[in-house]
Design a protein that fits this description.
Blueprint (H helix, E strand, L loop, with lengths): L5 E5 L4 H12 L3 E6 L2 H13 L4 E5 L5 H15 L4 E4 L16 H29 L4 E4 L4 H4 L5 H9 L3 E3 L5 H11 L4 H4 L10 H12 L11 E3 L9
Helix pairs in contact: 1-9, 3-4, 4-6
Length: 237
């Protein structure tokens, strides 16, 4: 259990991030969720507290250095420590399209929001955990797209390849639903036909893996890319 511990989850207002926040809370940790959307953040915080969690929401754009620095500082101001960090912030709002049609700005924004953001978070999370003298655990959420790319989303794939530490498969998140509507006209079989388990994963299944990586049960696991994808990429391994 994680009583007395503090977890920070970026991208914690929806999808895998929110599911991870709930798993941390069920294990007794205090949870801070950070995200760019104030409405979704407030709704996520309400759901966490309604479930009995000790939780806070902090409005943050994790692609901006000063905001990330302020976020980690605020977490420590509130709880006096930081034990776990799960960096799951991601977006499909920028950088979609054929490679030759994308602008330099498209590329820069996609990298900033999906890769630079993880690096900035780790930079300040690591400093705090080292200063505490007790260490901690950091998990970065990537994507199967980071293992081999995807047509129409090359910059997203490049960014996710850069943050591989824990690789999630096809999960029932708002981002995936948008992709299915955009590229498959709502036909989920485009994904399920490629997954040996025959279904799209629940965010909670990725969340359990992320929290396990932060727990004492994984104390000798480090620098590992844990692929949790229902077998989707097993052909390549």
């Amino acid at each position: 259990m994680m009583q007395g511990k503090v977890a920070l989850v970026t991208g914690g207002s929806s999808g895998i991030g929110l599911a991870t926040a709930h798993v941390f809370a069920r294990n007794g940790a205090s949870v801070v969720i950070a995200a760019r959307n104030p409405q979704r953040g407030a709704a996520a915080l309400y759901a966490l507290r309604a479930a009995g969690a000790e939780a806070e929401f902090m409005l943050t754009d994790v692609s901006v250095n000063d905001e990330v620095s302020s976020l980690v500082h605020a977490v420590v101001e509130r709880y006096n420590r930081l034990d776990f960090a799960v960096n799951s912030a991601a977006t499909d709002e920028v950088g979609l399209g054929l490679t030759a049609d994308l602008s330099e700005q498209d590329f820069d924004q996609a990298i900033a929001l999906n890769l630079k953001s993880a690096w900035l978070c780790m930079k300040y999370e690591l400093r705090q955990m080292l200063d505490q003298g007790e260490g901690g655990a950091i998990v970065n959420i990537s994507s199967v797209n980071g293992l081999g790319g995807v047509p129409g989303a090359s910059t997203y794939a490049v960014a996710k390849a850069g943050v591989i530490a824990l690789v999630a498969g096809a999960y029932d998140t708002p981002l995936l639903r948008r992709a299915i509507e955009r590229y498959a006209k709502g036909d989920t079989s485009v994904y399920t036909s490629r997954i040996p388990l025959g279904r799209i994963g629940r965010p909670e299944e990725a969340a359990e893996a992320a929290v396990w990586l932060c727990s004492d049960a994984s104390s000798y696991v480090t620098g590992n890319a844990l692929i949790v994808d229902g077998g989707m990429t097993s052909w390549a391994r």
